[in-house]
């Protein structure tokens, strides 16, 4: 495993500007042939929900892990946040050992503000060793808008290597529905390349209208460093985004 790697995921609610210096790129709305030959992502970032997070509402992060190796995610910074966690083991055949799964963190804050959540992937007894991975998210919480939703309103999950090397590929996906007039427009910081972007409509019967789908971006970087990818979900004639997210990715040599 690679040492001292940071994957920084900045989560900013829809009331804030994305603040990315780069060129906005909308994924094509034309049906794609799904030809991704030569593009094999090492990490898949699935942005499942992107609603504004109000005080008392839940944010969920899902990261891969395997405690059978002795390594596990240990929370090291969650000041002001209430954190609950559980490990969900992947399906395994009877008698199989060494099976990993996913660590699930659910966060809430009682007050509006900007909070930092950090977890390190390490063995608990190796107190002097550097963590294999350090995972940090920034969570922005607005004032309570009334009764909090019972389910998480912001969900992001990760699958694969948490820290890609330079020239390796990260795949970022988020649901959307351009038939409503809303479109995801992405912007990448200088140095982060968008190799391909596409919109994949959900399967539907011929002639059916109003069907949504998935926006997909494949990104990479030629040099080690931390880069920002972000996207806004808005109508072209409106100035304010309905939803948005930002993802900072660290590539290593």
TrEMBL record:
InterPro entries: Chagasin-like_sf (IPR036331), Cys_protease_inhibitor_I42 (IPR052781), Prot_inh_I42_chagasin (IPR018990). It comes from the Archaea. The keyword Cell cycle does not apply. GO terms for molecular function: cysteine-type endopeptidase inhibitor activity. Residues 52-139, 165-248 form the Proteinase inhibitor I42 chagasin domain. Keywords: Protease inhibitor, Thiol protease inhibitor. Gene3D superfamilies: 2.60.40.2020. This is Proteinase inhibitor I42 chagasin domain-containing protein. It comes from Methanorbis furvi. The lineage of its organism: Archaea, Methanobacteriati, Methanobacteriota, Stenosarchaea group, Methanomicrobia.
């Amino acid at each position: 495993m690679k040492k001292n790697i940071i994957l920084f995921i900045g989560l900013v609610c829809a009331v804030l500007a994305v603040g990315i210096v780069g060129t906005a790129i909308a994924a094509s709305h034309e049906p794609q042939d799904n030809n991704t030959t030569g593009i094999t992502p090492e990490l898949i970032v699935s942005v499942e929900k992107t609603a504004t997070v109000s005080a008392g509402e839940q944010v969920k992060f899902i990261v891969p892990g395997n405690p059978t190796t002795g390594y596990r995610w240990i929370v090291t910074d969650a000041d002001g946040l209430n954190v609950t966690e559980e490990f969900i083991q992947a399906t395994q055949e009877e008698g199989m050992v060494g099976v990993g799964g996913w660590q699930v963190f659910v966060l809430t804050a009682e007050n509006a503000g900007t909070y930092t959540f950090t977890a390190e992937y390490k063995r608990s007894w190796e107190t002097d060793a550097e963590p294999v991975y350090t995972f940090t998210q920034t969570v922005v919480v607005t004032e309570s808008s009334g009764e909090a939703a019972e389910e998480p309103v912001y969900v992001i999950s990760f699958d694969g290597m948490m820290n890609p090397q330079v020239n390796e590929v990260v795949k970022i996906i988020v649901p959307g529905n351009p038939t409503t007039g809303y479109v995801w427009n992405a912007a990448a910081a200088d140095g982060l390349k968008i190799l391909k972007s596409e919109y994949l409509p959900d399967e539907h019967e011929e002639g059916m209208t109003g069907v949504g789908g998935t926006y997909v971006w494949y990104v990479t970087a030629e040099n080690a460093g931390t880069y920002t990818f972000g996207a806004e979900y808005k109508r072209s004639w409106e100035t304010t985004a309905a939803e948005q997210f930002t993802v900072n990715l660290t590539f290593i040599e």
